[in-house]
Amino acid sequence: MTFEDIRPHLGLAILRGLARRCPSCGIGHSFKGYLKVVDCPHCGEQLGHIRADDFPPYLTIAIVGHMVVPMLLLSEQLMSPPTWMLLSVAVPVTLGLTLTLLPRVKGGILGLMWHLGLRGDETQ
Fold first, then answer.
1. Does a structural domain hold residue 121?
2. In this structure, how many other beta carbons lie within 10 angstroms of the beta carbon of residue 24?
3. Is residue 46 included in any domain, yes or no?
4. What is the pLDDT of residues 47-93, one digit of tens each?
5. How many domains does the chain have?
6. Is residue 122 part of a domain?
7. Could you tell me which of 7, 74, 107, 110 has the fewest CB atoms within 10 Å of its CB?
8. What is the β-pairing status of strands 36-37 and 31-32?
């Protein structure tokens, strides 16, 4: 039995990453601090060399934008609140969603890259 035989399925690796856990064992943490990728302290899986770079922030912006913009448009159309009130709600919601989702999205991308054997320095 080789390592490839016991490698979890793609969906499981991504789900473990979304939970900020090691995509291999699902027990150890894959981050030190907020976004620093480290090797798994539980199973020793080498994760620190994987570089997700710009894709997690890009995906986070797309997700948050698709959540906040419809909320703003609906509230404007249904209630017509003053601009200061819209901004006083939208800015903290946007910031909170972004800070909450970014490490989870990065973990999911980390799980995807780990499963596919990518390091982040591949060239075409």
1. no
2. 24
3. yes
4. 999 999 899 999 999 999 999 999 999 999 999 999 999 999 999 99
5. 1
6. no
7. 74
8. antiparallel
